Amino acid sequence: MTDQPKKQVSPMAAAVELTALNEYFRNRNLMLADALERKQQELDAMQTEVDRLTKINGQLQDAAAKSTAKGKIKDSSDAT
Fold first, then answer.
1. Which residue ranges are recorded for the region named Disordered (predicted)?
2. How far apart are CA 11 and CA 18, in angstroms?
3. CA nearest 59: which of 3, 32, 51, 37?
4. In this predicted model, which residue has the larger pLDDT, 9 or 39?
5. pLDDT tens per residue across span 32-74
6. Which SS3 state, helix, strand or coil, does residue 66 take?
7. Full DSSP string of 32-61
8. Handedness of CA 45, 51, 52, 54 (dihedral sign)
9. What is the greatest pairwise CA distance in the chain?
10. What is the pLDDT of residues 11-36, one digit of tens each?
11. Distance of CA 48 to the CA centre of its chain
12. How far apart are CA 37 and CA 41, in angstroms?
């Protein structure tokens, strides 16, 4: 605590300051909510892309496994 005497504050000045602070925080919250929404949309788009690439990867692995299996069957039939 300070030893300074308390100064009288005008109720009108306090109301103006309160209004300004409320407006500042309201705008700040709106900006943060907007930024959060944009990030969520980016994450959703990235997840969609990951899902698409995972599906393609699975298809490629299945095709490679079938190709390898066909090669082994062909090799074993050539040996007989």
1. 60-80
2. 10
3. 51
4. 39
5. 999 999 999 999 999 999 999 999 999 999 999 998 887 776 6
6. helix
7. HHHHHHHHHHHHHHHHHHHHHHHHHHHHHH
8. positive
9. 107
10. 999 999 999 999 999 999 999 999 99
11. 12
12. 6
Q: Amino acid letter at 71? A: G
Tell me the one-letter amino acid at 49.
Answer: E
Please state the length of the chain.
Answer: 80
Q: Which two three-digit tokens encode residue 21?
A: 């602070």
pLDDT band at residue 6 using 50, 70 and 90 as cut-offs: confident
| Structure-token match 């997840």, residue found | 47
In one-letter notation, the amino acid at residue 30 is L
Residue type, 35: A
